[in-house]
Amino acid sequence: MTPSSYSLSVIVPVYNEAQLLPPMMAVLRPFLDSRFHDWEVILVESGSRDGSRATCQALAAADSRVRAVHEAQRNGFGSALKLGFQQATKDLVLMTTADQPFPLESIDAALPYLSNCDCVLSYRSVDPRKSSFRKVQSAVYNLLARLLLGLKVRHVNSAFKLYKRSVIQPLKLVSNGWFIDGEIVYWITRKKIRYAEIPVELTDRQQGTSTVKLTTAFAVLKELWAFSRSIRR
Known about the structure:
single chain, 7 strands, Spore Coat Polysaccharide Biosynthesis Protein SpsA, Chain A, seven-stranded mixed sheet, about 230 residues
């Protein structure tokens, strides 16, 4: 495959993922080498207690294209993601997590759209990760996001999103939690940033423990409500 003319920053928020980081990089590094002349991986570690900090440092020491950035404490998924966006230096920005929630080949499908768009969002074509209860939660959240924020995308919080750095970095994002995806999609819509949507299959988490709990859904809804009120003031 001919490497892309774009360069790519990959943001990886990390909290207690020491077990998954080395195998993730073992897959991610050769994939990026085959697709991009110029790339970087930014590991944003946030107050982990399982050795993730040292693991991030070791991965960064082994490859100059990998950087480890540390928050002193766990401030939330959105906080880590915003820090990663600030640190990105390449043409494109992609977020993934250590459990690799989507096939990396989704990047191949997204790149052609960037000739006419500034970002590529996704909707879930297959999602084996969710129980029936979590699927209902997701449906309710997406419905409320559409009603309160006027969003028209198919899945607000689908994992795969590829942005041109020139559009994602200037956004004045405020969410420190899991609502960060909803806030990003709102500003993309509000600022009339050109986007495409593609189907992406989510993959099962094979190792480690998800930090998404039942209370996460209530926290996201609280953030959504607060944000919807703030933009109406």
